[in-house]
Amino acid sequence: MGQKVNPYGFRLGVTTDWKSRWFAERGYADLVIEDWKIRSYLMGQLERAAVSRIEIERTGDRLRIDLHTARPGIVIGRRGAEAERLRQELAKITGNVKASLNIQEIRQPELDAALIAQGIADQLAGRVSFRRAMKRALQTVQKAAVALGVDAASTAEDLARLKTAFGINVTDVDRLTNAIVALDSASSATFPEILDFM
After folding, report:
1. Residue pLDDT, tens place only, 136-150
2. 4-7 own/partner pairs: CB under 8 Å, 24+ apart
3. Is residue 38 within 8 Å of residue 54, measured between CB atoms?
4. Do 83 and 75 touch, CB atoms closer than 8 A?
5. From 173's CA, which of 88, 104, 163, 195 has a CA 20 to 30 Å away?
């Protein structure tokens, strides 16, 4: 059986950039754990905010956290109260008072693979038929990505392959996420090719 490469690692340095940008000769492990704590805290606090990715950049004693979300209003809150609360908690987690939180809006969330996967996972958790959830996601991507040339076929054969690939188990979402992540930046890939990727 062939080796499976994570799509993010496969594109790293070619078409995508690192999620954490910093260098440390000492205390490297502590900073990696700190990055993990920051990401897990933000993803836990902002489950309904449609967070796509969190980028962390360290320069000297400064820490900058870029939060890419489709719903910036939920993250910012009324008069910026929620954003300020998040900044204070991040300062506590990191011990760095110069930690800044930048909230960036995703202009086309229907083209973001992580958000598509989250949407499908939420639908599956809500006991929606997996065929309907997949078909709806494919239609959304097709409508939004016509100008970009994304070709995602939703034939009966593809749906049958989805059934054998994912079964009806609602909790088994990881493989589905990998399939949708393969849609990201794959402008010329057809849906059967993405299924072969799994």
Report:
1. 888 888 787 654 433
2. 4/197, 4/198, 6/178, 7/178, 7/181, 7/182, 7/184, 7/197
3. yes
4. yes
5. 104
